[in-house]
Model the fold of this input.
Amino acid sequence: MNTTSLSAIEFSLPPELEASAPPEARGLRRDQVRLMISNYSTDEVKHTRFYHLDKYLSAGDVLVINTSRTRNAALMASRTDGSALELHLSTHIDEDLWTVEVRSMDEAGKTKHLDDAREGEILSLPGTATAVLQRPYVSDCSDNSAPSETLWLAKLGFPIPVEEHLTRYGFPIRYNYVKEKWPLSFYQTVYATESGSAEMPSAGRPFTPRLLKRLESKGIQIAPLILHTGISNIETHEPPYKEFYRVPSGTARMVNEARASGHRVIAVGTTAIRGLETVTNGDGQTHAGEGWTCLVITPRRGLRAVDALLTGMHEPEASHLAILEALAGLPHLKVAYDEALRKGYLWHEFGDLHLIMP
Done:
């Protein structure tokens, strides 16, 4: 599904700007990654380190964070002919029904989407668990959705509770630009509370307890919500899929009070935006709620609750860029991304951050 034209910020991402390991492996603390601050009203761009974030926020501002915990959402799998696969668990739909992606592996351990998976195929998983592929996933977020090219509906059978099984046998989803395997602790935010995400809500990774305490002591409010993220490598033209969210009443109240008093609402990551905008009406009033969201944020739809965004650096043609465009506009994104490329910022979940402010 083409939600927006992103041709104005098409670019080539040099391989050396793909963060292939966490900052800790580069001798940095989590909060020592670089932070680019861009003002979409003036096109001014500044450069600092993430641990200076508090200098750019003010008392009364609200930081909306996604406290979903990342699962060990990848499992080794095998076909009946013995060939080895990886099964990526995207979203737990109901009881034993999941959306999953099946990936094959080459001799070097790199994975790619498996093209010849079959309906009814049974995959063997560690610990006597099984996955039965039902059919290609069809999004119920659109009346005319075509079958997914990457996701399957599958029935998973676990002999023990699923979280226990994934803790024992699973591992974090890792894409080919990450060269080594890192334990789940490297894919968690320090404020994560409830397991459910296939991949880390990575904009929150650089926060440390020390920085959070400093922000709160300055009068910056921290407003939590939950949005359990699925896998992110969906083909750009495919329809959106639903994700589970929960926005507490306290978070809704903080957001409404901040907006009423002229303070800023800063979303930490595009997942926080999707959750918050799902429960914000056309008048800009945010309400508590939980359920499954199909919301797609485009420049035409716009943003209703959020004034600023803390986010990672997104790849060319990534669908997340539509959210950034809705906030800041294409001309500003082009300025910011040209600067990020020129200054050598690092991309992906272990990379640098971008604060987009009014």
User: Anything to note?
Assistant: The mean pLDDT is 93.
